[in-house]
Amino acid sequence: MNQRPIRVLAVEDSENDARLAMRLLRRAGFAPDFHRVQDLAALQSALVQGPWDAVISDFSMPGFSGLEALTTFRASGLDIPFIFVSGTIGEETAVVAMKAGANDYVMKDNMSRLAPVLERELVQAARRAAHREAEAELRRFEAQLGEAQKMESLGTLAGGIAHDFNNILGAILGNVELARGELEADHPALTMLGEIQKAGLRARDLVRQILTFSRRQPQQLRNVALRPIVDETYGLLRVTLPAGAELELSLSDEPLHVDGDATQLQQVLMNLSTNAWHALRGEVGKIVIGLEAVHLDAATARALSGLVAGPYAHLWVSDTGMGMDAATRERIFEPFFTTKPTGQGTGLGLSVVHGIVVAHQGSIAVDSAPGQGCTFHLYLPAVNPPLPSMSIERMSDAPSLGHGEHVIYLDDDETVVLVVVRLLERAGYRCSGFTEAAAALAALGDAPDAVDLFVTDYNMPVRSGLDVAREIASLRPGLPVVISSGLITDELREQATAAGVRAVLEKEDTFRDLTALVGRLLAAAR
Fold first, then answer.
1. Is residue 349 predicted with pLDDT exceeding 70?
2. pLDDT tens digits along 280-330
3. CA-CA distance, 161 to 184, in Å (whole number)?
4. What 3-state class would DSSP assign to 175?
5. Average pLDDT over residues 359-365
6. Residues contacting residue 194 through CB under 8 Å, at least 6 positions apart
7. Would you place residue 506 in the very low, low, confident or very high pLDDT band (cuts 50, 70, 90)?
């Protein structure tokens, strides 16, 4: 017969009485491990040492009463059975003891009650513990829900900001295109315009990531070189980190490529480097960003969250900061877990890093110990570099020149409208620009046959681009329509096709690709 282990603290001046109580518990199926105390100091010490499953106390002892023992027990905050076992307790005293917090009392001339009473109170204590755990879990879920709602609101806000920033960015890139078209091929300003365009394209990718985050769309992975990402991150960090944080690179000369999202990989390095800086706690220290090629064997790969053997790019970020203990290392990738003071961290940084690495089919590991710094290791599957692009210029890539065809362009941002109108007019088209859908549709309704193509933004107040496309279909069936959007989803493509839209164009690529797209659509419509 398997006996139930139980640790009992006996407050009893008689060793024999304590052993008798334990003998009765063993007969009832318990396997008690007990410790006896008989004064206040010993009781206080024992309560701290614990843990205990139950306390059994005599009521009357020389120089020490059961009620004092109960008061001391209650002050400890333990929620376990406290049962009086006494031969002198009367009914009125028993009532006082129960009101003071005792769970029950057993008379020494009726010790057969001890095991059933203890069993009942242990069950009740277990229920209370489960209830407390459920309430704590509920509070954790409520906190996580609050954080999730906050992140959802942040995502909505980010989406709105990104949409407006898209228009600003579009105006910058569009004017760069216009300026380049006005300059000779050897003009020195072309180099500076090229740098503006390069920065604008990087910002375009950042906007796309913000929109992806705000609408929970999957990222697009492309063949990217890691060295430029590390170099660019290093440049950003050098002007960000304080003077006391020494930043070093340890990079392999071997070119390393992965299928990834360059902006998200840079976010991973920025997050890890920022955490490394925080780990220095304002003191002088070193942060190292490293990159090398490794080949993982089967055993090592399996240990890294189930990777497969093969070639990998090994990225790492190390610091000489305070380090982490084992308990912290086990939880660092949990959402909302943070070791920072309240208000100084969301606990989402490393969770986001982990999610990005996993989405890249990789793995992340950490080496750390208290006072010995920390190193985060990232392993991403290595791929071959992309094949070099063919230098042959294709006819479809050449600028498409118009012959006075009439294009209506609709966007709620006036600057974007002005730039697009200038681009299309420079390409030989006649373009009418509008910032309000009602005015653009009225112009089409007044002379439907005088319009050859209609381009509309998707995200606008009052009417969306899809709404406009459906109204165009009733005003001028068969008119080619293009929708420009900052984030193109499969759902948008399907709805656009159903509305008769001929093409959906990335908003950020409008100034680069629109004239060629207009030319192709008009040629197909002839």
1. no
2. 887 889 999 999 999 999 988 888 877 899 999 999 999 998 888 888 887
3. 36
4. helix
5. 90
6. none
7. confident
Which residue do the tokens 């989402």 mark? 348
Contacts 24+ apart (CB under 8 A), 117-123: 117/83, 118/25, 118/30, 118/54, 118/56, 118/81, 118/83, 119/28, 121/54, 121/81, 121/83, 122/6, 122/53, 122/54, 122/81
Q: How far is the C-alpha of 350 from the C-alpha of 274, rounded, in Å?
A: 11
Backbone angles phi, psi at 26, to 5 degrees: -65, -40
Q: Are 470 and 441 in contact (CB under 8 A)?
A: no
Query: Alpha-carbon distance 75 to 80, whole Å?
Result: 13
Q: How far is CA 402 from the centre of its chain?
A: 48
- DSSP structure class, residue 112: G
Asked if 6 and 25 count as a contact pair (C-beta separation under 8 A), the reply is yes
Q: What pTM was estimated for this model as a whole?
A: 0.47
Q: Which two tokens stand for residue 495?
A: 């709805």
By C-alpha distance, which of 374, 376, 268 is closest to 325? Answer: 374
Name the token pair of 294: 């490794």
Residue 340 has, within 13 A of its CA and on its CB side, a CA count of 15
393 pLDDT more than 50 = no
Q: pLDDT tens across 445-479, in order?
A: 999 999 999 999 998 888 999 999 999 999 999 99
Q: Are 456 and 468 in contact (CB under 8 A)?
A: yes
Average per-residue pLDDT in the chain?
A: 85
Handedness of CA 490, 495, 497, 501 (dihedral sign): negative
Of residues 339 and 393, more confidently modeled: 339
Please give the angle made by the CA atoms of 429, 195 and 289, to the nearest 5 degrees.
140
Q: Is the peptide bond before 51 cis (omega within 30 degrees of 0)?
A: yes
DSSP 306-368: TPPSEEEEEEEEEE-S----HHHHHHTTSTT---SPTTS--S-HHHHHHHHHHHTT-EEEEEE
What is the chain's percent helix, strand, coil content, to nearest 5?
A: 50, 20, 30
Inform me whether the pLDDT recorded for 29 exceeds 70. Answer: yes
Number of helices and strands in the chain (H, E): 16, 19
What is the residue whose two structure tokens read 């419509």? Answer: 525
Residues 115-152 pLDDT 10s = 999 999 999 999 999 999 899 888 877 876 776 676 66
- The Cα 357–Cα 264 span in angstroms is 9
